[in-house]
Each structure stands twice: as structure tokens, then as C-alpha cells.
Design brief:
It contains 15 helices and 9 strands. It is of the alpha/beta class and 305 residues long.
Length: 305
């Protein structure tokens, strides 16, 4: 288990060990969240690297990663806990057969912790040998507001109340990373319990560095063409702009195809790794792809200074 970083520079170095290229504002928000034991709320478009931060933290700090993938209709039974009803029924039947347990005692016994099925939020509050785990609450904006309200107790006091047992409180708070793609607004009451950071699309130079770090050995010329093309795509009016994840997917696809230089034909053949909607693909394929490549070449020919 690695210690919590002692400075923003140490945080940048920690992320770099996990092959994550972060800017200083993000590293600062993460450092403060770690040192002050506050949840970190990361908002931004899909594919910009929000979820990856939690994975890198777990890897570099040597902590267990507990992931709660959010979706519409997520409830307490799936996210926090539920009772093992089959085992409870078996216990009741055994007691009835043997007659060894009174009804009053049995009603208490079947709500013992041994019949409790622990889901991600409850698991995150338990004691872990390697230190507090990293709890990733991924895509919170996909859940309903009632579940969001339930999280207030967890994020305020790092405790969960189970009526049959009582309140379970964490000895030490987990490292909490919450992500949102902003498909809906998250309530202010929850955001106030977190440190907030908007994860934007990277600049050309930072995205180029991401490609170098995540795909070592890629030719410099090809990586620059890839990043320049994706950066130009993000200036277009598309339904879903490609994120960093798509940039990396495209780079790996081109390496697999032994592509040395991006041409309109290469773009047309591989657009499905960058764009995920047919309307967007039709908008870029053909003349628009050729136009973007020509713009990139023209910029490359411009004199510096």
C-alpha cells in the first residue's frame, strides 16, 4: 500500500506511474480530495478519462477498487445491501423442524449479519486489510433522484443505516470518486459534499502526450496526424464528439492495420472506431474527411513565428 501523496507534484507523479496524463488543476483537486478525505466529483463528456482516474488510484495506491455502475432504477438492494432470503427461509424451516428456537429469538437470528449480502456501498465502508478502498460511483447522472438523495448520508458521514441492525460506520473513509456525463444535473446538496472538477477534452499537446504514454512505440508522425484529426473533429457539429478513449482506440486500430499515414481512404474505412452514430459517420465520410486532412496539412506547412 502506497501513502497518500504529500503534494500536488506527488499527485501528478502518482498518476503518471499509472500512465495517466493529467493537468495541474485536476491533480490539485485530486490531491485535496485525498488529503482532506472528501469525495471527488468529476464531470465531463463521455470518454475523457473520468473513470480511469479511480482505476489508476486503486492501482498506484495499492487499494481495492469497488465500482458501483449506476443505471436508471438502481436501488438500495443493488447498491447497498439486501437480505439473503433463501438462507433466512432455510433457517426458519430448520428451527421449525428442531423446535430449538423460539419465535422471538428466531426473528432476531434471521436478521444477523451472516444473512446480509453486502453490495458496493456497504463493502466500501468495511475495514480492508490494504487500507480504505477506492469507491467508484460511475455515471451517477444515470440514476434516479431518490437514490441520489440516499447517497447524502453515505457521503456526509460515511455511514449506512440498516433498520434491523443499526448504523454501520467506516473506521476510515474510503477514497470516493464520483463521475457524471451530465445527462442531467446532480443536486447541489450532493455536490456540496464533494470537491468538483470538470474534465474537459485535452489540448492537442496533452492528447499527444496521452497517446505516447498509452501506446508506446507509435510513430511520432502518425500520432500527430491522429491527434490533429480528432481535434478537428471536435470542432464539427456532431451528435457525439470523440473522446480520448476513441482517440486511443483509433490509434490502436491504425497500428493493427499497419497504417503509416492517414489518408481519406483510411479515415473512411475506420471511422467506426472514432464515431458511434451513423449520422455523424455520414457527415464526415468522403469529402469532409478529405477537407479535414487538407486543413491539417496546410497548418503543418505554415511557417512558425
Amino acid at each position: 500500500m502506497s501513502p497518500i501523496p504529500a503534494s500536488v507534484d506527488d499527485t501528478l507523479e502518482l498518476l503518471a506511474r499509472g500512465h495517466y496524463v493529467a493537468d495541474r488543476p485536476l491533480a490539485t483537486a485530486l490531491f485535496l480530495a485525498l488529503r482532506l478525505e472528501r469525495p471527488l466529483f468529476l464531470e465531463g463528456e463521455a470518454g475523457v478519462g473520468k473513470t480511469e482516474i479511480a482505476k489508476v488510484l486503486a492501482e498506484t495506491l495499492g487499494r481495492r477498487l469497488i465500482r458501483l455502475q449506476c443505471y436508471e432504477g438502481l436501488d438500495v438492494a443493488s447498491a447497498v445491501y439486501e437480505w439473503n432470503y433463501q438462507r433466512q427461509m432455510l433457517e426458519i424451516r430448520l428451527a421449525e423442524v428442531t423446535g430449538e428456537t423460539s419465535k422471538e429469538a428466531l426473528s432476531q437470528d434471521i436478521f444477523d449479519e451472516r444473512f446480509l449480502i453486502r453490495r458496493p456501498l456497504l463493502q466500501a465502508l468495511e475495514r480492508h486489510e490494504g487500507g480504505p478502498p477506492v469507491l467508484l460511483i460511475d455515471e451517477l447522472d444515470r440514476t434516479d433522484e431518490p437514490f441520489e438523495a440516499y447517497l447524502l448520508e453515505v457521503l456526509s458521514d460515511f455511514q449506512i443505516t440498516i433498520p434491523e441492525i443499526g448504523t454501520i460506520r467506516a473506521e476510515r473513509p474510503p477514497i470516493v470518486v464520483i463521475t457524471s456525463n451530465r445527462t442531467r444535473e446532480i443536486h447541489d446538496a450532493l455536490k456540496r459534499r464533494c470537491f468538483y472538477h470538470w474534465v474537459d477534452y485535452p489540448t492537442l499537446e496533452r492528447e499527444l502526450e496521452i497517446v505516447r504514454v498509452r501506446i508506446p512505440g507509435i510513430e511520432e508522425r502518425l500520432s500527430r496526424q491522429i491527434v490533429a484529426f480528432v481535434q478537428e473533429l471536435r470542432k464539427r457539429d456532431l451528435f457525439k464528439l470523440p473522446g480520448v478513449a476513441e482517440t486511443l482506440d483509433w490509434a490502436r486500430a491504425l497500428l493493427t492495420l499497419d497504417v503509416l499515414e492517414i489518408t481519406p481512404e483510411v479515415v473512411n474505412d475506420t471511422l467506426g472506431t472514432l464515431l458511434k452514430y451513423q449520422d455523424d459517420i455520414l457527415k464526415i465520410r468522403g469529402s469532409e474527411a478529405a477537407r479535414i486532412l487538407e486543413e491539417i496539412r496546410a497548418k503543418a506547412r505554415e511557417p512558425v513565428g
